[in-house]
């Protein structure tokens, strides 16, 4: 069913939207908040064999489990509803994240991070599908803009807070996860389930209108490639800043925050950009900003220029992430939205997980600067492809209208 005027008015309220978009911040807290703790954590567990690898898994293990679980989560959300999974997952997310403050065993920490990843997959998929349930048409574009802002701005703030708390003690950043319990209480009071006719058995069994992976394959492929490219920044930037720019390690957090703030800023303007440009042109614009940012990092070794480059690349990824969701929801029927978004989440985190396997060989054989240059060339190819696709799409549309 469609939302009644009263429910539409409720979804437009500031309290309702704040409770919904605060959930989006939870999906970025997974790694950002504890990233500054890793060096001290590694020193604390220096007696543990292979701690250099295990400490990195503290950061990447949630992404691995999100990648594995997200498609199955989408199926469950489509079949049984959203909130009955989201609310318990939020509680588990807070507890499994915050319990790291009390743990003093690396293997127990890793288990808690795996549980965090599983619960994050339910929250991340659920909140994005809820957004699609609550908002349609131009309202959805505006809502996606706000969601992108909350995610990116929240991530930037968490980078700063995480750095400060980690400076006090590597355990302290884990306490931030308990904020999720307050967000859970707020969300429970405001969010509601939207029921559609497609939940009936008749529609669920209609295979002709079921989920087709190939329909969404271009969105998934773009998400994967985009995250492989963008995650060369958080995985390689610390070494670039220290080894090439010869800056203090403390510069890493503030420089990454610049990129996140840029992502948040541009996300607010996505709805306006979408009204002016089509999806394909926005992709080409996104690749242009990423191309420019990576070129600057590669060619001009200066910290102020690096900050500019990170702002530009942040604008590029900010447009891309919201554009991916917008394109996917425009393709998905109501009854398969969660399943389609589940695969999107999986490919997003797959890109994060495999990005080091892309960048490390390039760094080894070409050097850090040339690795960013190769990434810029990939962005150039993407920009050209979408310019061509946009032109062909426009020509085809004009022919159909004539």
Give the SSE map.
Layout: H1 5-11, H2 14-32, H3 38-44, H4 51-80, H5 83-98, H6 106-134, H7 137-168, H8 179-190, H9 201-204, H10 213-230, H11 232-244, H12 251-267, H13 270-276, H14 279-299, H15 303-331, H16 337-366, H17 368-401
Helix pairs in contact: 2-6, 2-7, 2-8, 3-4, 4-6, 4-16, 5-6, 5-8, 6-16, 7-12, 7-13, 7-15, 10-15, 10-16, 11-17, 12-15, 14-15, 14-17, 15-16, 16-17
Characteristics of this structure?
single chain; 402 residues; mainly alpha; Growth Hormone, Chain: A; 2 domains; 17 helices; 81% helix
Task: Give me the number of helical elements.
Answer: 17
The named CATH superfamily of the largest domain: MFS general substrate transporter like domains
The CATH class of the largest domain: Mainly Alpha
In total, how many beta strands?
A: 0
Query: How would you classify the quaternary structure?
Result: single chain
Shape: globular
Question: How much strand content do the residues show?
Answer: under 5%
- CATH topological fold name of the largest domain: Growth Hormone, Chain: A
Distance between the termini: 36 Å
Low-pLDDT residue spans: 198-208
CATH architecture of the largest domain: Up-down Bundle
- How many structural domains in the coordinates? 2
Broad structural category: mainly alpha
Question: Rg, please?
Answer: 21 Å
Helix content estimate = over 70%
Write down the secondary-structure element order.
HHHHHHHHHHHHHHHHH
Could you report the average pLDDT, rounded to the nearest whole number? 86
The biggest sheet amounts to:
none
């Amino acid at each position: 069913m469609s939302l009644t005027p009263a429910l539409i008015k409720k979804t437009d309220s500031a309290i309702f939207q704040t409770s919904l978009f605060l959930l989006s911040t939870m999906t970025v807290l997974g790694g950002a908040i504890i990233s500054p703790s890793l060096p001290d954590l590694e020193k604390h567990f220096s007696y543990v064999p292979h701690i250099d690898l295990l400490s990195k898994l503290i950061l990447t293990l949630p992404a691995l489990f999100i990648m594995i679980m997200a498609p199955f989560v989408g199926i469950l959300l489509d079949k049984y509803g959203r909130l009955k999974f989201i609310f318990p997952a939020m509680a588990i997310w807070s507890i499994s994240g915050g319990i790291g403050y009390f743990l003093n065993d690396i293997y127990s920490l890793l288990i808690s991070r795996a549980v965090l990843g599983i619960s994050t997959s339910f929250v991340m998929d659920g909140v994005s599908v809820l957004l699609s349930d609550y908002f349609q048409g131009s309202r959805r574009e505006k809502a996606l803009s706000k969601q992108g802002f909350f995610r990116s701005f929240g991530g930037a703030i968490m980078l700063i807070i995480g750095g400060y708390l980690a400076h006090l003690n590597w355990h302290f950043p884990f306490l931030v996860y308990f904020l999720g319990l307050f967000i859970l209480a707020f969300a429970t009071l405001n969010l509601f389930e939207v029921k559609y006719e497609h939940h009936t058995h008749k529609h669920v069994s209609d295979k002709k209108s079921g989920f087709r992976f190939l329909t969404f394959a271009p969105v998934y492929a773009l998400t994967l490639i985009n995250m492989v490219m963008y995650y060369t920044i958080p995985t390689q930037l610390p070494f670039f800043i220290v080894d090439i720019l010869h800056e203090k390690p403390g510069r890493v957090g503030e420089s990454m925050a610049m990129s996140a703030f840029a992502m948040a800023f541009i996300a607010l303007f996505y709805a306006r950009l979408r009204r002016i440009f089509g999806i394909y042109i926005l992709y080409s614009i996104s690749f242009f900003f990423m191309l420019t940012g990576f070129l600057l990092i590669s060619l001009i070794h200066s910290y102020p220029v690096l900050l500019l480059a990170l702002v530009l690349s942040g604008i590029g990824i900010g447009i891309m992430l919201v554009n991916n969701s917008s394109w996917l929801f425009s393709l998905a029927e109501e009854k398969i939205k969660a399943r389609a978004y589940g695969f999107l989440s999986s490919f997003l985190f797959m890109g994060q997980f495999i990005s080091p396997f892309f960048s490390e060989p390039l760094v080894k054989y070409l050097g850090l600067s040339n690795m960013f240059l190769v990434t810029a060339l990939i962005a150039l190819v993407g920009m050209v492809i979408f310019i061509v696709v946009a032109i062909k799409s426009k020509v085809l549309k004009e022919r159909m209208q004539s």
